Structure formats: C-alpha cells, structure tokens
Amino acid sequence: MKEQLKKYIAIRGYVETDALFVTVDNTPLSNRALQNRVEKYGKEAQLKGVRCSCHTFRHTFAKLYVQQGANIFELQTILGHTSMEIVKTYVNLFGTDVRDRHKEFSPLKVLEQKR
Fold it and tell me: Average model confidence (pLDDT) for the chain?
C-alpha cells in the first residue's frame, strides 16, 4: 500500500492542501465523494459477496490486525475509539478467531503441560 500511495502522490503532484485525495482542481475530496469512489471501484472490479466500502476496509483492517497477534488496546487507539465495546464490534471478539487464540494462550494449557 505504501508503494501505491507513493505512486499516487507522484502522479498527483504537489497540492496546497494536507488532504491526501484531491479533485481534478486540487481541492480536498469530500468524505462522501471518497465513499462513492470506493463503491464505484468495487463494482468495476466486479467484487461479489462483500460490500466494498470504506467501513468494510476499516473492519477488515481491524480484524486482520488482531488476527496477526496485535493488542486490541493498541487497535482501540489506532481506530480512535474511547470505548472497547465499539472495538469489539470491529473484530467480532466472540468469533472463532478469538476462541482459537484463547486455546493457544489459555493458562489451562500451561497446567496441562505440568501433568
């Protein structure tokens, strides 16, 4: 992703805004316009069985972040949430991924090994 963003910035060129994505007249792209573009490109890519949206990207990032072993408290900070309850909805803490991680790191595993 980093390399793709570098290419985009090189093509886009210098603009007098802190916005990453800009319109053809170099004004910041609105949130709604960005959402529309993501949905449009998802349709053009003929993605099936998943909603292509900014929210889906955010949710997928959160889930993959935790699946790779990251700390959910760090994730909470990255996502900018004040409540852990909202973070739980992103990573589906009661799903099979968490159960698998629990089995892997459960204190009971240590007790079983000592027998």
Answer: 84
pLDDT digit string, tens, across residues 7-47: 999 999 999 999 999 999 999 999 999 999 999 999 999 98
d(CA 45, CA 94): 32
Domain spans, the chain: 1-48, 53-115
R_g of the chain computed on alpha carbons: 20
In whole angstroms, give the CA distance from residue 35 to residue 23. Answer: 14
91 exposed, middle or buried (CB, 10 Å; 0-12, 13-18, 19+)? Answer: buried
Q: For residue 49, which amino acid is it?
A: G
Give dist(CA 62, CA 81) in Å, integer.
12
- pLDDT (0 to 100) of residue 38: 94
Q: Buried b / exposed e across 55-80, counting CB within 10 Å, b at 16+?
A: eeeebeebbebbeeeeebeebbeebe
Whole-model pTM: value is 0.64
